[in-house]
Write a structure and sequence with these properties.
alpha+beta; 5 helices; six-stranded mixed sheet
Length: 292
Amino acid sequence: MTGSRGVALDDLVLPSADLGVHTGLAGFGDAWLTGRSEGRLRYAEADGFLYVSAVVPPSVRYAEAVRALYAELFALTRRMGYPTICRLWHYIGHINGTTADGLETYRDFCVGRALAFEEVSTAMPPASAVGSAHEGIGLFLLATRSGGLTAIENPLQVPAYRYPRDHGPKPPSFARAGYLRHASGGTLFLSGTASIVGHETACPGDLDGQLATTFANVEAVVHERNLARHGVAAGFGLADFDRVTAYVRHAADLAAVESACRAAFGAGTAVRLHRADLCRADLLVEVEGVIR
């Protein structure tokens, strides 16, 4: 497993490649190459994992198209024998814009995703959803043939799928993290994590405050006490992350976020940054990562 996102070989461009500025890793890039496709789904198989990429074309509304695409994704993973969805990434054009119905694009997306999960019995996987310079919605999925995924929540936050209607007609459908048990050990996938306490944004307009709250949320998710609550006999700190990605709303904040991430996670963690809009207009930074 060499990357955190998938890209098909033909003409599909990884949406995050055009999010903005990257700093900190020479030659950074993720590429999962494949010539295989089924309808609008493009995919690759390697080492017991399935990587799938797809795009929802630009539209004036997205809920139904997202629901339909998720149904195709679920059908493909079942048919090919990859029952465990480990991780999802979404890159949403005009994420804080509005649809033809006056609903924020992200909230419209959440309606379609929630409807799709209501139709299946699969557990909520970890996920991220950030803005993209591309139009439409890019979706990337990682699933596995063997091993079990334990969904992990954050004791400092309301589970996203239980958010009140203040945050939209349907809540976001994801777990705060997922711990994958497999033959060679375990991998923890951290969802996009930001400055949210309970279900409300903390420290709006305050980058330092949002960074501190975000790091506290990450620590709470991966701490031994929290993992034990979910039946996982492991425990981690920030320095245990192999790699983290920070999405930063304002380009002027990239250097400060990079410095804060390197100080918080330490020299052993690969840090990369993208300029991207986020799922709430008052969020300034979001962090995701992997612990192997």
